[in-house]
Amino acid sequence: MKKFKIYFLTLISAFVLSAIFGWITIAVIANFTVLLVKLGFSGLGIAENIWMIIVLLIATAIGLWRMFKDRSILYGIVFLWAYTGILIKHLSLSGFSGKYMDVILTTTICMVLFLVSCPFLCQAKKLDDKKDEKSEERQKVKKIIKKINKKKNSK
What we know:
Layout: H1 2-38, H2 48-70, H3 73-91, H4 101-154
Helix pairs in contact: 1-3, 2-3, 2-4, 3-4
């Protein structure tokens, strides 16, 4: 029962930290873009909607990379949540009313990338688990071999 409690607490901690890390990543990217606007960044002659697409693609690359590196689907779900907010803002009448179709399309593609990557991530986690099991088995075999060698050497 004690092992279960430790495992459960570890799982919950990883779950919460993954969500927090995802929101921190989103917040850093959003705050950086706000800072650029506040500083009067003119976009180097590139239209605002194109900059939005660039930021979305960079954020997606960062999100997918961390999601696979940390093996955390929840991290990607946080990006889906944030992108859903962006999509709603661009589609709603109180937002941009569908004015920037290229941003809407890019946001949708980014969301699909996160959704499609989830099964691949699950498969990668299964492979990691198998590797861990094999590693544990190898350690057990090594211990048995050491014991046998010690018995031979002591005779």
